[in-house]
Amino acid sequence: MPLAIVFGWPVVEEFIKGAHNMDAHFVETNPRHNLPVLLALSDIWNDIYLGSSGRIVTPFTESLAAFPALCAIMESQTCTRRNDDNGSSMALAGTTTAMTPMTTTSRIATPPVVIDGGLHNIYDGVLYQTDRTLPTELVMTLDTQVTANAIGTIGKRNMMRVFDTQDALMCSLFAQADELAFGNEARDSDNVGLDGGSAGRYGGISESGRRRDSFDWGSAAKAGSDGDASLGNRSSTVLVCSKCDAFMCGQLVAMVEHRVIVKARILGIDPFVRHVGSSFREKRTEQLREELRSIMEQDTIDEDEDDDGDGHGSGGTGNGMNLSTKTILQYYANLMKQQRAFIVANNNASISSSSINSTSR
């Protein structure tokens, strides 16, 4: 209904058709060519076997700026449960040993946090140079419809600039994917093994040479003049859509849903558990509000009070309220009591002044 109100029912129909198209693809296509299944398996490989703790989703078009938020919501609401399909609690681990296959008795690391890479990719340092790598997901549409919509705005004379911008954006997408895969470390030409790899471990071939000599170096950039280099060997996934329209948006939404469901099923997680952290947070919020009211009703509040019995409980309220929480709430209560008393006094003074002026007239 909200989509129909904003965009009209014909657009909603196209959106539903796109979602149905992805549903049919997910049900009917062989797993070897099934996009949601392949993406879910890629995530599990990065999370379980490579020990990644998150992934960065970067849209290369402004129309998909909200796509990372959609992925983050679906991941957090579906694949971060502690309950398995039988309703029993699972033992979860934040990280696992890299390249250690998961067994039936091993602890399970649920899928990672999804980070919005932003339209300008603000996590360049994390992507290229850190030892703790994060998988990257790059999303782009071949036809951004910018060129078609720009003719009526800027005219035909400036269309070449729009074309150049679109071409540069597409090249930037694949440049980032290639840079993540191959890096730009300079190879030592004076110390080369028999097959072209740099001499070192593994029979005269360095680990870097073993990694890269199996690829085509045509798209690999050279190291910068300042000695700064990206390490390469970083996993990335490129999602390229044909056209940014309602049909494609429906496909993307359905793809994200199937992807997280497949991951949940493989990990043995119940994706439909209702009681999550937010519901427990609401209960604790109500408890703290009651405690704050009781503090507000006190005539004087001793901010320096340190009651060991109250401050070292189980983290609840009352006698078990956390000491740091209690201290800050007391300070907040003192500050708000003074502020609110001042506001009420000024308001009463203004009302009294208005009444006197009305009486004199």
Automatic annotation (TrEMBL):
SUPFAM superfamilies: SIS domain
InterPro entries: G6P_Isomerase (IPR001672), SIS_dom_sf (IPR046348)
Sequence segments annotated as region (Disordered): 296-321
Superkingdom per UniProt: Eukaryota
Presence of the UniProt keyword Ion transport in the record: no
One Gene Ontology molecular-function label: monosaccharide binding
Keywords, alphabetical: Gluconeogenesis, Glycolysis, Isomerase
Annotated GO biological process: gluconeogenesis; glucose 6-phosphate metabolic process; glycolytic process
A single Gene Ontology CC term: cytosol
Secretion signal, residue range per the UniProt entry: none
Pfam families in alphabetical order: PGI
PROSITE patterns in the record: P_GLUCOSE_ISOMERASE_3 (PS51463)
Positions with biased composition (Acidic residues): 299-309
PANTHER family in UniProt: GLUCOSE-6-PHOSPHATE ISOMERASE (PTHR11469:SF1)
Protein name (database record): Glucose-6-phosphate isomerase
Organism whose genome encodes this protein: Craspedostauros australis
